[in-house]
Amino acid sequence: MSDGTTHWAGCSESGPKHYKCALLEIARLRETITDLRVKLEKKPWVGLTDNDKEKCLVVREDRGWHGVLDAVEAKLREKNGG
Fold this sequence. Notes:
Number of domains: 2
Mean pLDDT: 82
Order of helices and strands: HHH
Number of helices: 3
Strand content: under 5%
Low-confidence stretches: none
């Protein structure tokens, strides 16, 4: 148990002999809650406007569709903070 794990799943609910297991389970649940809270607080995804799409569709002869894909990717990164 000193390695940060409990004896078995649910042993933290098996009485006073498993107090340390209960503390470990509480710590694990707090960490899970924190992780979920951070995920929920993330900025929502922002898509492209029609104007953005038109700008991305300008195909440069030297890059072809790769230029379009690069433009779309760059615009989405810009709009979504990435």
